[in-house]
Amino acid sequence: MTKPNNAFVIQREDLHILFDVLIERGYTPVGPTVREAVIVYDELSGLEDLPEGWAEEQDAGTYSLKRRGDNALFGFNNGPHSWKNYLFPSRVKLWEGDKTEDGGFTVKSAVDTQKKFAFIGVRACDLHAIQVQDKVFLDGEYRDPIYSKRREEALVIAVNCGQAAKTCFCTSMNTGPRVSDGYDLALTEILDNDQHYFLAEPGSTSGFSLLAEIPHSEASQEAIAAARGCTKQAQEQMGRKIDISDVKEMLYRNYDNDRWDELEKRCLSCGNCTMACPTCFCSKVEDVTDLTGNHAERWREWESCFTMDFSYIHGGSVRPTTRSRYRQWLVHKLAAWLDQFGTSGCVGCGRCITWCPVGIDLTEEVRLLRNSEN
Ligand code: SF4
Ligand code: SF4
Question: Where do the 4Fe-4S ferredoxin-type domain residues begin and end (predicted)?
Fold first, then answer.
């Protein structure tokens, strides 16, 4: 094995310094923590907020925490939150205005005062999801100013997965379980008998400069091999797979397949899948006034293609049935997204499978649609 030039070791007892340095540099650390029996993302005050020793069991429509029996800090997989909660917040004020005494109206843009984020524990699939949303919010004719500011300022501390959930299928989507680019610092957690350390691989000058402030040593061949062994284990544990060869053409061919009727019987049109999905980006704007009618505000909020209102054009909804809405979602994710943005809208994180209350599984739906053709 050739030794990469940029691999170092940080001991577990020194990792807390990462948080101190980030806070000193004006970042708000955001990462995984346990809240209400789920691992969510939230602002972290230090390493002690991480879900030490916790893992989770997840499958279609189910999620529960369990103890791992060790002190791993990142020994779990994705929960319901993703980084879009911070880069593309679920509710944000766009502008506000007030009536003036002479009967006019003054408007001022809302300023996004959010401090810069340091994302801790970004998994490979989610790093790809951020890159997918970059295409949506930054690469088109219109750049989203809120996303753009938050994204430019964000620092990404990635964590390579050492385990996979039953709902994960990043290997099928070529998005994981090991990060490839787009991070400032990548960590792989290694627990080996009484040793507990992180292989640290900087991916940017900010990553190198962070590392310079944390005690570290050059990684041995054994440490590098142990880290690669961790991601190999995650690869082997991958809970699901999907055949994405010609999936775009297959879905376009099956626009009228009876399978969509079966889905209509199960799908609740609740939109959970779109809320949990790290790439879904739809939103609506809503105007509100106070009780006096003198003050008005415009807010942007997440919206879902599963609501009737989403496709309402004067006189009615373009997609009036659950059949048409589920089909729209799946075909957009895995087919039309490729035409629109040059990339799949799915990164194989499995969230839509876990957080669907009736356990609808898109990998299974694609398989059934494919099989129905034979
Ligand atoms: S469609 Fe489902 S598996 Fe794919 S990225 Fe969205 S939530 Fe994850
Ligand atoms: S697929 Fe599941 S999560 Fe998505 S809208 Fe239907 S019931 Fe809700």
Answer: 256-288, 337-365
Q: Which of 306, 319, 326 has most ligand 2 atoms within 8 Å of its beta carbon, as the pocket-test mutant?
A: 306
Residue 286's pLDDT is what? 96
Closest ligand 2 atom to residue 266 Cα is 7
Number of the ligand closest to the Cα of 277 = 1
Phi, psi of 276 (to 5 degrees): -80, -20
Beta bridge partners of 301: 91, 284
Q: Which of 225, 222, 227 is nearest to 198 (CA)?
A: 227
Q: In terms of residue numbers, what domain contains 197? A: 8-90+110-237
Would residue 20 count as lying in a domain? yes
Spacing of C-alpha 22 from chain mean position: 22
- The residue whose two tokens read 């806070």 is 23
Q: Are residues 223 and 252 in the same domain?
A: no
Same domain, 61 and 191: yes
**Mean pLDDT for each consecutive 10-residue tract of the chain (374 residues)?**
72 98 98 98 98 98 98 98 98 96 93 92 98 96 95 98 98 98 98 95 97 98 97 96 97 97 97 98 96 96 96 92 97 98 98 98 98 88
Contact assessment for residue 36 and residue 49, using Cβ atoms and an 8 Å cutoff: no
Let me know whether 149 and 40 are in one domain. yes
Give the phi and the psi of residue 336 in degrees, each rounded to 5.
-65, -30
**Helix or strand run (H / E) with residue 20:** helix 16-24
**Number of folded domains that form the chain:** 2
Owner of token pair 């775009």: 248
Residues 68 and 145 in one domain: yes
154 CB within 6 A, ligand 1: no
> Which residues, 6 or more positions from 245, have their beta carbon under 8 angstroms from its beta carbon?
none
DSSP states of 217-255:
EEPPHHHHHHHHHHHHHHHHH-------TTHHHHHHHTT
CA distances from 135 to 128, 129, 183, 225 (A): 11, 10, 17, 34
Q: Distance (Å, rounded) from C-alpha 162 to C-alpha 185? A: 17
